[in-house]
């Protein structure tokens, strides 16, 4: 359905995206992951026909969207990371304004507004001015704007940033509904790994402008199939203790977050006794030590050296 072929985008002497190849089949939800500065936003702008690449081609149903962006925009919906609404208008007025931009008129437009308000759960709040909405309600209306023209492809750039858990859950379920019941193909980016694991059929991982991994969740998890993670919670952490872990010969990687450390080692390595000894020597009280099979977050950290939210 959508294919990027050898896409590159250069700003002065720096590549934001370099030789990117990617495809999406009709009916999929595909995740695009990467730490800040990885090139995701540039890639999304290119595949949305908003930015021209320095090199390469983007195809939708085997037709170049670079040569004919207008026809592509009629079947693609974009949910930007930033809220793109008129806050002094009501939800209904916002939808009517953007619907006219999509050249939807009359009774058809009114029906689409009513349908979209039902989908995003704002039918009973449609007459209220947007500036009185919560962050989650604004995010839902932001999605509603992208649905007015019944797109075949929906590109969602971090649609749950900065909202409460209830609104976040509602949006995730809405994404599932759009995909399953309305057959909308969705590209989804997020800083929350659990969202991508819940929603996506396949995942692409970017870092420093390059695609560094692609596949199903199972295929990507197999990158670390020969390893295990040891999650250590302690009363406090010291730099000498962290340094000793990082330089221990059998440790592959160490990630530190607050009072928790995640250590990656080969499956056959038994680190428990040495870990206790290191903690005793550093006068650190261990609260818990748990051994887990690697998660998608572990793989991401292994590939990029950074957590998704970094």
Note down, in words, how this protein is organized.
The structure is a single chain. The protein has helices spanning 40-47, 69-73, 91-101, 106-119, 135-147, 165-182, 193-199, 217-221, 239-247, 272-281, 296-304, and strands at 2-11, 14-24, 29-33, 55-60, 63-64, 76-79, 153-157, 185-189, 202-207, 210-216, 227-234, 251-257, 260-266, 286-292. With 310 residues, the protein is α/β, with parallel strands linked by helices. β9 and β10 form a beta hairpin. α3 (91-101) packs across α4 (106-119) and α5 runs parallel beside α6 (165-182). 35% of the residues are buried.
Number of strands: 14
Q: What is the CATH homologous superfamily assignment of the largest domain?
A: P-loop containing nucleotide triphosphate hydrolases
Question: Share of helix among residues?
Answer: 25-40%
Tell me about the largest β-sheet: 6 strands, mixed
Cα distance spanning the termini: 32 Å
Low-confidence stretches: none
- Measured by DSSP, the beta-strand proportion falls in 25-35%
- The radius of gyration is 23 Å
- The structural class is alpha/beta
Strand order of the largest sheet: 6-7-8-3-9-10
Helix-strand topology string: EEEHEEHEHHHEHEHEEHEHEEHEH
Number of helices: 11
So, CATH architecture of the largest domain? 3-Layer(aba) Sandwich
Tally of discrete structural domains: 2
CATH topology of the largest domain: the name is Rossmann fold
Spatial shape: globular
């Amino acid at each position: 359905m959508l294919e990027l072929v050898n896409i590159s985008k250069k700003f002065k002497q720096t590549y934001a995206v370099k030789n990117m190849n990617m495809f999406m089949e009709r009916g999929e939800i595909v995740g695009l992951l990467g730490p800040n500065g990885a090139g995701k936003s540039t890639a999304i702008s290119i595949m949305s026909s908003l930015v021209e690449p320095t090199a390469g081609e983007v195809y939708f149903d085997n037709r170049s969207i670079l040569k004919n962006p207008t026809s592509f925009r009629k079947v693609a919906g974009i949910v930007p990371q930033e809220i793109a609404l008129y806050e002094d208008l009501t939800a209904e007025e916002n939808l009517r304004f953007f619907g006219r931009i999509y050249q939807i008129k009359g009774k058809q437009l009114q029906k689409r507004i009513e349908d979209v308000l039902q989908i995003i759960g704002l039918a009973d709040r449609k007459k209220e001015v947007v500036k009185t909405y919560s962050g989650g309600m604004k995010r839902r209306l932001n999605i509603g704007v992208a649905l007015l023209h019944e797109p075949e492809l929906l590109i969602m750039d971090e649609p749950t940033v900065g909202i409460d858990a209830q609104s976040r859950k509602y949006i995730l379920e809405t994404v599932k509904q759009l995909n399953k019941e309305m057959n909308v193909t969705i590209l989804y980016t997020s800083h929350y790994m659990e969202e991508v694991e819940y929603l996506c059929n396949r995942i692409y991982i970017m870092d420093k402008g390059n695609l560094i991994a692609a596949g199903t969740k199972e295929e990507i998890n197999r990158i670390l199939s020969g390893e295990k993670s040891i999650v250590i919670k302690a009363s406090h952490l010291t730099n000498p203790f962290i340094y000793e872990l990082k330089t221990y010969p059998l440790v592959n990687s160490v990630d530190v977050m607050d009072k928790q450390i995640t250590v990656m080692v080969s499956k056959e390595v038994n680190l428990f006794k040495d870990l206790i000894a290191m903690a005793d020597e550093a006068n650190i009280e261990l609260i818990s030590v748990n051994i887990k099979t690697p998660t998608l977050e572990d793989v991401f950290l292994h590939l990029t050296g950074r957590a998704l939210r970094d």
